[in-house]
Amino acid sequence: MLLRHTTNKVKEREALTVNPAKTCQPIGAMYAALGIHGCLPHSHGSQGCCSYHRSTLTRHYKEPVMAATSSFTEGASVFGGQANLLNAINTIFSVYEPEIIAVHSTCLSETIGDDLGQIIAKAREDGKIPEGKHVIHASTPSYVGSHVTGYANMLEGIVKHFAMSTDEIKRQVNLLAGWVEPADMRELKRMMSVMGIKNVLLPDTSEVLDAPMTGKHEFYPKGGTTVPEIVSMGDSMFTLGLGEWATKSAAIKLENQCKVKFALTDLPIGISATDRFVMALAKAAGVSIPEAISSERGKLMDMITDMHQYFYGKRVALWGDPDQLLPLIEFLADIDMKPVYVVSGTPGKAFSKKAHEILAEKVPEAKIKNGATADMFLMHQWIKEEPVDLLIGNTYGKYIARDENIPFVRMGFPILDRVGHSYFPTLGYMGGIRILEKILGVLMDKMDADSPEESFELVM
Ligand code: SF4
What we know:
Oligomer: single chain
Pfam family, one: Oxidored_nitro
CATH superfamily of the largest domain: Nitrogenase molybdenum iron protein domain
GO molecular function: ATP binding; iron-sulfur cluster binding; metal ion binding; nitrogenase activity
Function: This molybdenum-iron protein is part of the nitrogenase complex that catalyzes the key enzymatic reactions in nitrogen fixation.
Bound molecules: iron/sulfur cluster
Radius of gyration: 23 Å
Strand order of the largest sheet: 11-10-9-12-13
Number of domains: 3
CATH architecture of the largest domain: 3-Layer(aba) Sandwich
Family: Belongs to the NifD/NifK/NifE/NifN family.
């Protein structure tokens, strides 16, 4: 197996990443753009980048992800890709008829120094952008940041291009979704509808990347935030951003551009973060929390109480994205599990500080690292030094799970070898139940597999 030769002696590394715990910026930009109705993502670079980004999204969502590319060859790589992009814009609008083209850069086009804003302005001048259609852009060089940075940059680009203030305040709340599954976006809308809150959710990949099989291929599925909805965000009462890494820059842009005040809160994963989310929403919209939401909370609490003995004291290793990891480790600590190892390839000094604060009281021994050298190799070394009872993270952990025989719950991006993540939410109180059900499932399977015959239990 790939990691069988991992040594357990950790050595300081500065310039080497082995099996990174992150992926490319443009993947995030593509995912955010797919949450806009009628939008075609466009990769300004070589074909290989676009193929890799599309295939990763397609493998995770099990849906055909459409995206165009500027298709750089040697000429464009040396002299710049302006001609390719102008040509692409012209062809895409005449052949594929999107409402919006969302262009993101790649390592190559950034290194050449292509100015997307200038090229798009030229396309407009040259009459290549039809009346009522839009071309938006984001800078996403993959030698900095991660897929989360790319998502944040595209979200900011969308807000910058569309949001407009008419000075007529609308009784609606903007919800900037962090990078979550289509099922989670649907769950956020359901919760807001139960609370009676009119809202604009941006982006919204439900009914795009979990669209039903109808027997007919829809190039632009019916889901996604519409242009009029995004424009109206400039007149909303308030903006709530879910996850600092994915939504902060868009929230700031919206406030600067349209004077819509904002607050950031964690993704509602688990009890405490969902409590904060529900209270922040209620405050922003000026509503009270309905009984139906309290009842969902009660169900989650009931499950925690019923099954606490199976969670208690279990050591957990996690990897993934900062916005998911912070509320998730808080949730695990809340139910007396021990998140002892945490890595994220996404940079940002605040992550490790915040994670240590969350775990300071209950898991002071936790090892936490993020950035370029916080990789799956390091995670494996920590586990070899002192094992854990459970792994939580994306598919790339399956090698460690197999080599070390550790129960494994797949969460995060990408999940390339299982289904269900697009359909069953992990956000909110009901999502908390789903997370616990998955954790319990693998822990109890392991107990069943390992228990001697005399203590093999029918009822657990
Ligand atoms: S790292 Fe850069 S060159 Fe490689 S696939 Fe990503 S965007 Fe393309």
